[in-house]
Amino acid sequence: MEAKKTTLIRTVFGMMINPAGVLKNALKGTKWYFSIGVSALAFGLFFIQTGLDLYKTGQKGFWFVLFCFILGLLYGLLAIPFFATVIWLLLKVSKADTTILETISAFCLSYSGALIYGVIGIVFSIALGWNTSVAFGVTGVLWAIGPMMYTIRELTGGNHKLSIPISSLVGVIVLLSWSTLGRL
Questions:
Q1: Fewer Cβ atoms within 10 Å of its own Cβ: the N or the C terminal residue of the chain?
Q2: pTM
């Protein structure tokens, strides 16, 4: 059991620092539901930081904080795998040889950095009272664009023409949807 935990932690940190190593080694042994869990928790923590920031400044009530957390979990659980499915369809057009579950798993694991930044941001928000959604939340999502580019490039067999625009577009969509949350 302890070896399995180490492998999962290594996968999360590895995807943030060395996506090539994770994609070549751990992705085959990483269950798709673990990857989606990484994405769900990353966005849950990112969105709750937004809720906490608005709560601490008196703009929103405490129920909004809980709403943000649930919305973030659902975003990471449903929206990110949906984006991965759309990307998988694009990869099929480009003759890439990956399964839909491999694509979803790799894409969701790209948000490992966002998960780590989310945990750190929550600690700083609660322990020090900082507003952390921009400093840690947005930074984590931006950090995910690099692993996402690499992931898409690997899944397309090295096609830069697809990896850069697709990962940039997904990053923009994610940040625009987050900015909408603050205006609810």
A1: N
A2: 0.85
Residue 153 · residue 163 · CB < 8 Å? yes
Helix axes 100-109, 32-56, angle to 10 degrees: 40
Q: Which residue has the tokens 């948000």?
A: 111
Measured CA to CA, the distance from residue 136 to residue 32 in angstroms comes to: 26
Asked if residues 87 and 152 have their Cβ atoms less than 8 Å apart, the reply is yes
- Interval 86-105 mean pLDDT: 84
Helix H, strand E, coil C: the string for the chain is CHHHHHHHHHHHHHHHHCHHHHHHHHCCCCCHHHHHHHHHHHHHHHHHHHHHHHHHCCCCCHHHHHHHHHHHHHHHHHHHHHHHHHHHHHHHHCCCCCCHHHHHHHHHHCCHHHHHHHHHHHHHHHHHCCCCHHHHHHHHHHHHHHHHHHHHHHHCCCCHHHHHHHHHHHHHHHHHHHHHHHCC
Are the beta carbons of 80 and 111 closer than 8 angstroms?
A: yes
Tokens of 138: 């947005």
Rg (CA), the chain: 16
